[in-house]
Amino acid sequence: ENELIAKQSAHIFIDEFVTRIGIVIIAILISSLFWINYVDNVLTFLVGHLIPCQIECANLYDPYAWTKLRWIMAFMISFIPLIPLSFYQTYRFLEPSLFLREKKYLIRIFISTLIVGLISIISTVGYLLPSIFTVGHGTVLSSGFEPNYDTILLIDFAINIIWLELLIIGYVSVVVIAGGLNLINKQNIGS
Q1: What span, in angstroms and rounded, lies between the C-alpha atoms of 169 and 161?
Q2: Which of 25, 96, 133, 173 is the least crowded, having the fewest Cβ atoms under 10 Å away?
Q3: What is the pLDDT at residue 85?
Q4: Interatomic CA distance for residues 14 and 22, integer angstroms
Q5: How high is the pLDDT of residue 5?
Q6: Are 75 and 28 in contact (CB under 8 A)?
Q7: Rounded to whole angstroms, how far apart are CA atoms 148 and 146?
Q8: Residues of the chain with pLDDT under 70
Q9: How do residues 16-70 score in pLDDT, each as one tens digit?
Q10: Is 74 buried (19+), middle (13-18) or exposed (0-12) by CB count in 10 A?
Q11: Tell me, what's the pLDDT at 6?
Q12: What is the Cα–Cα distance from 37 to 30, expressed in whole angstroms?
């Protein structure tokens, strides 16, 4: 009888988990379909902001890659605003098993993660990458070459940097949450 109760509890747990993940995935898909209509505006803004010269030095060598980049960017700009929904679904999934102190801690970490992520993305796209590309452009000009940039590579590079930042921030958040909830301690890390 205890085994039957354990199996039922596991099924309830898995059903709840799949439902919460499904909500987030469906929201991202619906949002991506919405953003695909506006992604060209976002890409035009990024190209204008990131390319350190007049638009004449930017080229589009591979139209197929541009189409792929449009879908990747649509997914990305639909995913980032839905991060709070992901946090909410995670919180709702974990809530029954947390003490009040742990719930408050989790909310603080989620809010901190969101703020750090937004600051990171805005500073990377707004300052860091344009500065790096401007320095590179100056180097190309001082070497006597005529600049000719592949637009897809520049945008792809920016997207990869942003994904890397999000992964690092997410990883650090998971470790901080696990440490704060005492899931990582001296007894279970083998020190």
Answers
A1: 12
A2: 96
A3: 93
A4: 12
A5: 55
A6: yes
A7: 6
A8: 1-8, 55, 190-191
A9: 889 999 999 999 999 988 888 999 898 888 888 888 887 678 887 788 888 888 8
A10: buried
A11: 56
A12: 12
Token couple for 161:
């940097």
What is the residue whose two structure tokens read 């638009």?
55
Sign of the Cα torsion 185, 186, 187, 191 reads positive
Supply the pLDDT for residue 53.
Answer: 82
The Cα 77–Cα 42 span in angstroms is 9
Closest by CA to 86, choosing from 21, 29, 35, is 21
Q: What is the pLDDT of residue 87?
A: 92
What 3 state SS string does the chain have? CHHHHHHHHHHHHHHHHHHHHHHHHHHHHHHHHHHCCCHHHHHHHHHHHHCCCCHHHEECCCHHHHHHHHHHHHHHHHHHHHHHHHHHHHHHHHHHHCCHHHHHHHHHHHHHHHHHHHHHHHHHHHHHHHHHHHHHHHHHHHCCCCCCEEHHHHHHHHHHHHHHHHHHHHHHHHHHHHHHCCCCCHHHHCC
Closest CA to 51 of 145, 140, 165, 160: 140
* C-alpha separations of 173 from 88, 101, 167, 177 in Å: 15, 17, 10, 6
